[in-house]
Design a protein that fits this description.
Layout: E1 3-11, H1 20-38, H2 59-64, H3 72-93, H4 95-120, H5 133-146, E2 151-160, E3 165-174, H6 175-196, H7 203-219, H8 222-240, H9 244-257, H10 262-274, H11 278-294, H12 298-311, H13 319-331, H14 335-348, H15 355-369, H16 373-386, H17 393-412
Antiparallel strand pairs: 1-2, 2-3
Helix pairs in contact: 1-3, 3-4, 3-5, 4-5, 4-7, 5-7, 6-7, 8-9, 9-10, 10-11, 11-12, 12-13, 13-14, 14-15, 15-16, 16-17
Length: 413
């Protein structure tokens, strides 16, 4: 006897948001199963209304039959696939689209089963259909399109007594391999079932649901999203292994598809820093900060500016953006970072019409926030000497004059 069995037990795709619809469907399926299995039939509701009848198909039953199961193994098998693949898929396509894939795949699978049964085995049209197999098959189809880059962890058992093999274990396999192997198995079982004239499992529904899920994911542009996320995941894996040039190539491929991702641009900048390419690091940091400001993420932009300043001497942005960042950091009490931003601005744009104003802001921070009066006086003197006709020059002269008088008074005492 030869035996091979496997079951998916994990994924390497992270889940960053709560999969509320996945757990909602899980709860409905478990609740209905318990009520259907252990509550007397007809005591409060007729569950047979949920069953899809191929002989008399109805649109309502094509949806509702997915939430009802006939036995514990039937329920557990479908729920394993729902929770395992559903969480990662919902986190990427959103709850509304996820639910649309689930119910649409269930309905398409049910009607395909009815058509195949009528054409190939009409004697089994009286057999009703229940279970989320068609719907979860649709999730697998959508998963194959949207997360084709991921890997599935499977637990397996191989038993080959004549060869002396009895092996169990767990391993990761590419999602494409795992899902296509599952699809091939379903197709083979469907063909065998038709040839044998059996009707125990609606394998045709699995195939219909799978096709529906793939088509819906393609319509949602899932393949493009998959390519982008694959590049980002690979870039981060290269970075973790200190493979800087491989990380840069993958980040660039990702940003060609998703140019507005500020966080990915910051990660690319870090890869450039680690590779010693300061010129490209400056460009990437500047683009990341600009994108963050465009998204209204000022705190992230200021954090990235501070990070860039630590790695790159005299890091400077475009004139207006540099001044905006500097003023923002002053307002949020990041005084030392603001001093660096103001000083970098003056070094890069000494002829700017706002240079005198920047010197005034620097003087104020040194005087009132950092308790450095000598540096404050130096800023006032520079303002008077370099920008004597500026509107702020008179204020700077007054400040310098006031401090001299105060100093003379103290000396006379």
């Amino acid at each position: 006897m030869y035996f091979f069995y496997y079951v998916p037990v994990g994924l390497d795709a992270d889940v960053k948001r709560r999969p509320l619809v996945t757990w909602f469907i899980f709860g409905i399926c478990v609740t209905l199963f318990v009520l259907y299995k252990y509550r007397p039939i007809g005591s409060w509701w007729d569950f047979t209304l949920l069953i899809f009848q191929p002989a008399y198909p109805s649109i309502a039953a094509a949806f509702t039959h997915a939430f009802l199961h006939g036995g514990w193994l039937h329920l557990i098998g479908n729920m394993v696939y729902l929770v395992l693949f559903g969480r990662a898929l919902e986190a990427r396509i959103g709850p509304v689209r996820f639910y649309a894939v689930f119910v649409t795949a269930a309905a398409v699978g049910a009607y395909l089963h009815a058509v195949l049964t009528a054409l190939l085995a009409p004697q089994y049209l009286a057999y009703g259909v229940i279970g989320a197999s068609g719907a979860t098959s649709g999730l697998l189809g959508a998963y194959l399109v949207r997360l084709s880059w991921s890997r599935v962890r499977v637990a397996y058992w191989v038993f080959m007594p004549l060869q002396g093999v009895n092996r169990t274990g767990r391993t990761y396999v590419p999602a494409i391999v795992a899902v296509l192997f599952w699809f091939a198995l379903q197709a083979a079982l469907a063909a065998a079932q038709i040839g044998a004239g059996g009707a125990g499992v609606a394998y045709g529904e699995h195939l219909g649901g799978f096709a529906a899920g793939m088509l819906l994911a393609l319509a949602m542009r899932g393949s493009g999203d998959s390519r982008a996320e694959r590049a980002l995941v690979r870039a981060r894996r290269h970075f973790e292994k200190a493979e800087w040039f491989g990380a840069q190539a993958e980040y660039l491929e990702y940003l060609a598809l998703r140019p507005g991702d500020a966080e990915a641009r910051a990660e690319l900048a870090r890869a450039h820093v680690c590779a010693g390419d300061k010129t490209r690091a400056r460009e990437s940091y500047a683009e990341a900060i600009g994108a963050s400001m465009g998204e209204g993420q000022r705190d992230r932009a200021e954090r990235l500016f501070d990070e860039a300043a630590r790695h790159l001497p005299l890091f400077v942005l475009d004139r207006d953006l540099q001044l905006d960042i500097a003023c923002g950091m002053e307002r949020t009490l990041k005084y030392r970072a603001a001093v660096f931003a103001y000083e970098s601005y003056l070094a890069r744009f000494p002829l700017s019409p706002d240079a005198a104003f920047v010197l005034l802001r620097l003087a104020g921070i040194h005087d009132r926030r950092l308790d450095q009066p000598e540096k404050a006086r130096s800023c006032y003197r520079r303002l008077v000497d370099e920008y004597p006709s500026d509107e702020w020059a008179e204020y700077a002269r007054a400040r310098l004059a006031g401090e001299r008088v105060a100093g003379a008074t103290v000396a006379n005492k």
